[in-house]
Amino acid sequence: MSKKLFAFISIFLCTLSLSSQSYSPYENPDYLPFERMVYQPGRNFHTSIRQFRFDELEAVGSTDSALYSAIRVPEGKLNIFKRFLYDDLLQWENDDFKVAINPLFNFEGGKETTEGITTFTNTRGINIQGQLGKFFSFYTDVIETQAIYPNYINRFADRYDVIPGYGPRKDFGDNGHDFSQATGYISFNVAKYFNLQIGNGKNFIGDGYRSLLLSDVAYSYPYVKATATFGKVKYQALYSKLLQYEEDKATQDHRFPGKYSVTQYLDVNIGKRLSTGLFSNVTYAAADTTGFRGFDIYYLNPMAFVRPVEYSLGSPDNVTLGFNGKYVAAKWITLYGQFVLGEFKADEVFSRNQWWANKHGFQLGFKTFDLFGVKNLDVQVEYNHIRPYMYSHYTPIYAYSHLQQPMAHILGANCKEYLGILRYKYKRIMFKGQVTIARYGDDFGDGVSWGKDVLIGNTNRPHEYGHYIGQGLTTDVINADVSLSYLVNPRNMLNVFGSVRIRKATSSEQTLDTQWISMGVRTSLKAFYKDF
To answer: Which pLDDT belongs to residue 11?
Structure first.
């Protein structure tokens, strides 16, 4: 069946008039050059679907002007030194193709003063992107890293055997980590309104710093993404292959068990300021008690909503539904929010007995630009609230996760979080300050699930009623970070930086303090979340 489907898609593509469109590679939330351009009244840009497409960005403004804001680029042909400072390092272009190559790296050193850990990061990589003729665009990158991190990241790595955002790791020296990651895609515009992207990477749905629907905190995964855009309406169907990590297979030549994820998202712009989005996802194992299932063809139809289909199959799978909203109140402020639902039973919800399966969460936030009339002074404030057992399933492999990490919020579930971010840019100098305050209820390691870890089956729960956020091992976290950087090359976000992070996690069992000072030089294209 899969061979016939592949052949059909190939023939279909060859018979259409195709043009290619590339996607913005700027995924690091600390360096988002196009945000202030798209969050404006009347732009009708579908901001909740990321990555952004360059052709859609160009329809609302100049991407070069946004990227090189307040930075003067020398005129004429650039030599290799000037290219290193202002443009792609290597580039070939004519009427038929365009190819650009840039280095990726992070050479960072630091000190975690509480435990006396000398930290470092040694990341090397390359990205290649381009357009060949009128038929397709492409992007690929690969990075290899050896690193020693402060205590709290080390404990995450020891617990899950993965680096947050980067996936499986190996030992490096006595207390270091060795890991890698590769991403890439090819993209086609099929006729006028449709885009098809085939790749291996991450996706994000939402207008916030976090997403309770689909976020980029997990490891890269293979996917096929079909997008249709009709003016103020944008629809996306995303078919992904995820993996369930098993520790006993990590050191052997065995495949991790697979599972599939089908995501549908419909975003509608209403008037000049309001956007609403409807989200649905189903996650299910490639093999179950009936045998090998593979990709279920019942979920292939992008126009059939997954919940009725899942119900018609006997309701065996893990379905997540949600809503995303945005209101551009003025040129300088945007309000946004999300609601996510894992299960709903009206009598249990309204009884206020805190039933375990009242699985839902919400997000509220706002972001400002040029606050108080100060150019490039931006502030973002956000609150996230997720009840226990959200995203989990009675069978662990059905959880909304990939390689030991949740596909939504980095903390999983059973958590609430306040965060505030201040950014200021003056020419090439960038300042960022962030404070994150969170409470979550961790598990005790005795096999009983208190609802935070989405990887644990929810059948072994302590009781049916009386569940609340923070139950279990109540843990309070304060994570503050201040960084100052000098932008060398906006094209690949090459910057020299220094940062100070102070973190404190307190529970009834222990208090873990972190005081981390670091500095280095890096290309800040990728997201690596350290605020958990």
So the answer is: 40
Contact partners, residue 103, CB within 8 Å, separation at least 6: 89, 124, 125, 126, 492, 523
Give the DSSP letter of residue 452.
S
- On the 0-12 / 13-18 / 19+ scale of CB atoms within 10 A, 159 is exposed
Task: Write the pLDDT tens digit of every residue in 509-530.
Answer: 999 999 999 999 999 998 899 9
Structure tokens given for 144:
């290899």
Of 452, 220, 208, 196, the C-alpha closest to 324 is 208
Taking the model in full, what pTM does it have?
Answer: 0.91
Span 13-59, pLDDT tens digits: 443 434 457 899 999 998 889 999 999 999 999 999 999 999 899 99
What is the Cα gyration radius of the chain?
23
> What DSSP assignment string belongs to 299-328?
G--TTS-HHHHHHHTTS-SEEEEEEEEEEE
Structure tokens at 437: 């305050």
Nearest CA-CA partner of 282 in 264, 258, 257, 302: 264
Name residues whose C-beta falls within 8 Å of residue 489's C-beta, 6 or more positions apart in sequence: 84, 85, 86, 87
Closest C-alpha among 238, 289, 282 to residue 259: 282
| pLDDT tens, residue by residue, 165-220 | 888 899 998 889 999 999 999 998 877 789 999 999 999 999 999 999 999 999 99
Is the CB of residue 170 less than 8 Å from the CB of residue 144?
Answer: no
CA distances from 121 to 79, 422, 494 (A): 30, 25, 16
Phi, psi of 30 (to 5 degrees): -80, -15
Q: Rounded to the nearest 10 degrees, how much is the dihedral formed by the CA atoms of 158, 161, 166, 172?
A: 70
